[in-house]
Specification:
Mean pLDDT of chain B: 92
CATH topology of the largest domain in chain A: Rossmann fold
Mean pLDDT of chain A: 95
Largest sheet of chain A: 5 strands, parallel
Helix content of chain B: 25-40%
Number of domains of chain A: 3
Distance between the termini of chain B: 15 Å
Radius of gyration of chain A: 22 Å
Low-confidence stretches of chain A: none
Strand order of the largest sheet of chain A: 2-1-3-5-9
Oligomer: heterodimer
Low-confidence stretches of chain B: 5-11
Order of helices and strands of chain B: HEHEHEHEH
CATH class of the largest domain in chain A: Alpha Beta
Number of domains of chain B: 1
Strand order of the largest sheet of chain B: 2-1-3-4
Bound molecules: iron/sulfur cluster, FE2/S2 (inorganic) cluster
Number of strands of chain A: 9
Largest interface: A-B, 47 and 36 residues
């Protein structure tokens, strides 16, 4: 039997997902032995033309990390979708936009304005020179990808078969998924239902958290540098904004065990469409205020509420982006 | 892959006179909905722009439902429940109050005017209050104009 074909691609991402693949340690040898790796720009020398030359659905599995920021990202998402039997969104960027998705606080114009004009690190001679998709050169026209106004997640541009959440997905979970995949391909076992979330649990981060919880009554929020958290009590009980109640289980409550609040990287728990909205619900149940004024006073201490509640999921949220006040509506 | 449907109605510009605000009203069964019902029975005029959805308690209205209403084309969302002390489930409306406060903070940062979301306490006997609020809110939204969301 010919080896099943595996492709790995990175779009708008930090590279952490690539490292996570290597973090599976000696398992990588098993993966390399079992699969024929046909495309992996980060680690091996393949060209886009190699993928274009393949038959449709020739690749058995593609692990796609990164969000869709540029026309190149979108082109590769569509190409790999066509060439792959199974397309897996790998990691938080492909799943829900993650940190690149926070650029949906701005638009392409304001991003360029800052990056190429305002930023103090722009070199004087090139201040105000913006990248152009097409540039005429003596040798002919050269092209760079178009920078989109809004960061999208993978399943907003192509159909996605499965998703492995996390920033990055934890290596134990990656191993478990790869082992299951190898087993399925060897034995012909049934695939998980399409659309399934792999390599994660179906509860919340709180369910994996070892800290003791009391009846919550929050009078004041603290930022991490303003308080030394007790090691065994729920962080939210102590007034530290922990996204555990609005985050899918699967990481083993990694951050919370290191005395740091969960930031929500495993995305929304099952049956939740909007992670931030879920956290708004959770917080509203535990803030100790009987009047709107009291409530507002407590909530005003939440630094950057939008960036905190949607740190990983802004691009996937109900509104997908901050509205740039395009004139008439919201003054 | 998801697509967002945008009705042509939503994308055509409207003048103040022809603009009919679309408002979703989540009304709790025990107070506000009964109040609106009483308005009807008493032949009190209330605003036809409010599409009423009956919920068991104002505390049943998940913030995600409010966001979704805006996403699908609502220009305003009204949440109405029992006065403090009257909630059929004791504390539901206190949660609602905190939720709406926080949601308004977040809406504002999404670039959406928080005044598009309104919270009112209306008892089962306050038919007149429902009628008044329904027109007041409709006029306020008419003044603000349609909510046009940009997703890309
Ligand atoms: S809120 Fe955070 S600290 Fe508290 S139980 Fe949940 S995950 Fe643990
Ligand atoms: S605790 Fe939260 S932020 Fe940390 S790895 Fe787990 S899901 Fe991600
Ligand atoms: S039952 Fe009316 S607000 Fe709870």
């Amino acid at each position: 039997m010919p080896k099943p074909k595996l492709a790995l691609y990175w779009a708008a991402s930090c590279g952490g997902c690539e490292i996570t693949v290597l973090d599976i340690e000696e398992k990588i040898l098993e993966v390399a032995a079992f699969f024929d790796i046909v495309f992996w720009p980060c680690a091996m020398d393949f060209k886009y033309a190699d993928v274009e030359a393949m038959q449709d659905q020739e690749i058995d599995i593609t692990l796609f990390n990164g969000a869709i920021r540029t026309s190149e990202n979108e082109h590769l998402a569509k190409l790999l979708r066509r060439k792959s039997k199974t397309l897996i969104a790998f990691g938080s960027c492909a799943h829900e936009g993650c940190i690149p998705g926070l650029s949906n606080f701005y638009d392409a114009k304001s991003t360029f304005e800052y990056a190429y004009r305002e930023s103090p690190t722009v070199e004087e001679s090139s201040r105000g020179i913006y990248p152009q998709p097409k540039t005429a050169m003596p040798e002919g026209e050269i092209e760079i990808p178009e920078f989109y106004n809004t960061v999208k997640v993978l399943d907003q541009v192509v159909d996605v078969d499965y998703t492995i959440p996390g920033c990055p997905p934890q290596s134990a979970q990656v191993i478990a998924v790869l082992e299951a995949v190898i087993d399925i391909l060897k034995t012909g076992k049934a695939l998980p239902p399409r659309g399934a979330i792999l390599g994660a649990g179906d509860k919340t981060c709180c369910d994996e958290c070892p800290r003791t919880r009391k009846e919550k009554k929050i009078k004041e929020f603290f930022r991490p540098h303003e308080i030394i958290p007790k090691e065994d009590e729920c962080l939210l009980d102590q007034g530290i904004l922990c996204l555990g109640p609005a985050t899918r289980s699967g990481c083993g409550a990694l951050c919370v065990k290191a005395n740091v609040p969960c930031r929500g990287c495993y995305g929304a728990p099952p049956n939740v469409s909007d992670q931030g909205a879920k956290m708004i619900s959770a917080l509203s149940s535990v803030i100790d205020a009987a009047t709107p004024e009291e409530a507002r006073k407590i909530m005003e201490k939440i630094a950057d509420p939008l960036g905190t509640l949607y740190r990983f999921s802004l691009a996937r949220s109900t509104f997908r982006r901050v509205q740039m006040g395009n004139g008439k509506n919201e003054k | 892959m998801e697509t967002v449907e945008k009705t042509t109605e939503q994308s055509t510009p409207k003048t103040r006179e022809t603009f009919q605000p679309r408002i979703v009203g989540f009304l709790c069964n025990w107070c506000a909905y009964s109040g609106a019902d009483l308005a009807g029975v008493s032949r009190l005029q209330s605003s036809p722009n409010i599409r009423i959805i009956r919920t068991m308690c104002s505390g049943r209205v998940d913030p995600a439902m409010i966001l979704r209403a805006f996403e699908l084309g609502a220009d305003g969302v009204l949440i109405a429940g029992c006065h403090f002390g009257d909630c059929h489930y004791l504390e539901g409306n206190f949660k609602t109050m905190r939720r709406i406060e926080l949601l308004k903070m977040v809406l504002k940062r999404f670039g959406i005017d928080e005044k598009r979301l309104r919270l009112e306490w209306i008892s089962a006997s306050e038919a007149e209050k429902y009628a008044r609020v329904s027109f007041e809110f409709t006029e306020q939204i008419r003044e603000m104009g349609p909510l046009v969301l940009q997703f890309s």
